[in-house]
Specification:
The complex is a heterodimer of chains A (about 170) and B (about 220).
Chain A: H1 3-28, H2 32-50, H3 59-76, E1 93-95, H4 104-114, H5 118-128, H6 133-140, H7 144-166
Chain B: H1 3-20, E1 21-23, H2 25-32, H3 43-70, H4 77-106, H5 113-125, H6 127-136, H7 148-152, H8 156-179, H9 188-193, H10 200-217
Classes of the chains: A mainly alpha (about 170), B mainly alpha (about 220).
Chain lengths: ~170, ~220
């Protein structure tokens, strides 16, 4: 692939999957400034890895792996920023409408997801993104049986939290 | 709250994001042309600084030892042995750091999450081994200044103090070397030593490694 073509393919992959990047970043960073840094870091790492992309996997699988790995590492190392992101005064992924018309239920779901341990959070995002057990197992590196057990446990945990709020 | 309701909520969120998210192409181009770099402090840079500092310190001590050996007298024996002890422990720490730099290059974020996170956590937690080894050099810092005059004009009080300090440092260093391990991360003394901010990422990595192990077994 020529460098120019590679640049364009990368741009179209990011364009197509920007929602995934945003949702992963939003699930691991509730703070707006941190989220901006995390989105930049995910896209930076995606670009670094793009030349080695293995086409035996779908773009979305490759993208989920990198986005979640970077988000988990970022979450663990949150006190180790070098401050490069401050060079950027605008966001890489911009939310065009600032008006917050998300339902209260969705806000609760986002909050409950962000309270889950890092690995449970990754599984739940993939489950809600309609990934099947095999894909989730591939992305996480666990067995399908293990994934099924964990999804049930996490769902019960979330349902418990919703019912506590409603009672 | 049914499964279907959770997924519906998420799908609605997805639809809304589809309409509202826009990509800033200029910033993506800046990343592609390397104008924007990682926001995380590069782990490799920190290790390379550690290796460089360790090598400079080892070379400096080696020069001192070489001079001391070239004019070797019995009174310099403590100095030579002590500095050699410090050189050996520092060199061992430098070797660990060099191994870590090699390991950093092998970490691939496109690997599955368990594998990539395990490698990263093992790497971060192995920094603890550098501390273990460097603790072993502590007793040598209590002996390098012993000289001929201290034997010729014996001061019992001074010698009692010297032997006590060296013994305490030796026992403590050996004990720490044997006990600074992941299984003791919950102990109070461990938290006192590694409780500062500089060690946060290492202690978090140790905790996360344990979580990964449990997670795979559950």
């Amino acid at each position: 692939m020529t460098p120019l073509k590679e640049d364009n393919v990368f741009l179209s992959v990011i364009e197509q999957h920007k929602g995934i990047i945003y949702k992963v970043a939003n699930s691991y960073c509730r703070n707006i400034e941190d989220r901006k840094d995390l989105i930049q870091e995910i896209i930076y790492q995606l670009w670094r890895s793009f030349g080695r992309y293995n086409d035996q996997y779908k773009y979305s699988t490759w993208l989920y792996r990198i986005a979640l790995n970077v988000a988990i590492s970022f979450y663990r190392k949150d006190s180790k920023r070098s401050g490069h992101a401050s060079e950027l005064t605008t966001d890489i992924i911009v939310v065009a409408e600032e008006k917050d018309d998300l339902s209260p239920q969705l806000h609760l779901l986002q909050r409950f997801i962000s309270e889950l341990p890092e690995l449970d959070r990754a599984i739940m995002i993939l489950y809600l993104e309609e990934k099947n057990y095999k894909e989730i197992a591939d992305i996480l590196g666990l067995t399908e049986t293990n994934i099924a057990t964990k999804i049930n446990r996490i769902k019960n945990k979330l349902k418990g939290k919703f019912s506590t709020i409603h009672n | 709250m049914e499964d279907i309701a959770l997924k519906e909520m998420w799908a609605n969120y997805d639809k809304k994001l589809e309409k509202t998210l826009a990509l800033n192409h200029r910033l993506i181009a800046e990343i592609q042309t390397q104008k924007v770099r990682s926001v995380l402090r590069p782990l490799k840079t920190i290790k390379i600084v550690g290796v460089t500092a360790g090598i400079i310190w080892t070379l400096f001590l080696s020069v001192l030892v070489t001079f001391a050996i070239s004019g070797m007298t019995a009174s310099r024996l403590f100095f030579v042995v002590s500095v050699l002890g410090i050189i050996v422990t520092t060199a061992a720490a430098v070797v660990i750091y060099i191994r870590q730099v090699v390991l950093i290059r092998q970490i691939d974020n496109s690997e599955n999450i368990m594998e990539a996170q395990r490698k990263l956590a093992v790497l971060q937690s192995s920094t603890m081994n550098v501390a273990r080894i460097l603790f072993l050099s502590a007793p040598f810092y209590t002996t390098f200044y012993i000289n001929k005059a201290m034997f010729e004009h014996v001061n019992i009080g001074l010698w009692v103090l010297q032997v006590t300090i060296t013994t305490v440092f030796t026992i403590t260093a050996i004990w720490l070397y044997r006990n600074i391990q992941m299984k003791n991360a919950g102990e109070r003394w461990f938290k006192v030593i590694f409780g500062s901010k500089e060690w946060t990422s290492v202690t978090k990595a140790i905790k996360f490694l344990k979580e990964i192990e449990v997670y795979e077994k559950e």
